[in-house]
Design a protein that fits this description.
Layout lengths: L3 E7 L1 H7 L5 H8 L2 H7 L9 H10 L8 H15 L1 E3 L5 E2 L3 H13 L5 H5 L16 E5 L1 H10 L7 H10 L1 H23 L2 E6 L1
Antiparallel strand pairs: 1-2, 1-3, 1-5, 4-5
Protein name: DUF7691 domain-containing protein
InterPro entries: DUF7691
Organism: Chitinophaga jiangningensis
Length: 201
């Protein structure tokens, strides 16, 4: 068991328009999603719960500051519905794979980057109360993504190289795939004018 980083490409204006939109059809569609059911099943009895938090976000109601995680779980459901999950499909393990990614970038490509600090920069602010611990979050706008693309421009990892590495060292191959997935996510966002929003829990 551990904490995992997962990311979405999303139209930031579309996300902001959905908050306080009072769009009942949108609410109902999200409530039918697998992601919504996943978080509802994790609700704690003492919290307001994902369903009520999502309803309040879409209706633009002031949040209950004592139940911050419920609102962030609801926000993940909203972003999962409106956006596109990016990456290889595998989530990055915090403080394990992130450390290995940082090490390879530093030692093999001379890139001084702390991937967890970049992705989970705490700059996602849409008016929700901050949780005491989890989930962590972050957002990279187009300017941030362009700079990151430049920083990683000389990091070249072919699909063939990752396959060969898998045969020799599956763990290292997974880390290399994580680096390539980050590059692909950045490229996708820039090509489609999306921001990159990440969470960790």
């Amino acid at each position: 068991m551990g904490y995992f980083i997962f990311s979405y490409a999303i139209d930031y204006d579309k996300l902001n328009r959905s908050i306080g939109s009072k769009d009942i059809a949108l609410l109902e569609k999200i409530q039918q999603s697998d992601k919504f059911q996943e978080y509802v099943n994790q609700d704690l009895p003492a919290d307001i719960g994902t369903a009520e938090a999502l309803r309040q976000i879409i209706n633009g109601q002031a949040p209950d500051t004592s139940c911050a995680p419920s609102y962030w779980h609801a926000l993940i459901c909203l972003i999962d519905y409106l956006g596109k999950p990016v990456g290889s499909g595998e989530r990055i393990v915090l403080n394990y794979e992130t450390d290995l990614i940082n090490q390879i970038l530093r030692e093999d490509f001379k890139v001084d980057l702390e991937v967890e600090e970049v992705l989970l920069n705490g700059k996602l602010d849409i008016g929700l109360p901050l949780p005491n611990d989890w989930p962590l979050s972050g957002i990279l706008h187009l300017g941030d993504l362009f700079q990151l693309q430049l920083d990683l421009s000389h990091v070249k990892l072919s699909h063939e190289h990752i396959i060969v590495t898998t045969e020799e060292d599956e763990e290292e191959a997974r880390v290399l795939d994580g680096i390539q997935s980050l590059k692909d996510s950045i490229d996708y966002c820039l090509q489609h004018n999306k921001v990159l929003i990440s969470f960790c829990h």
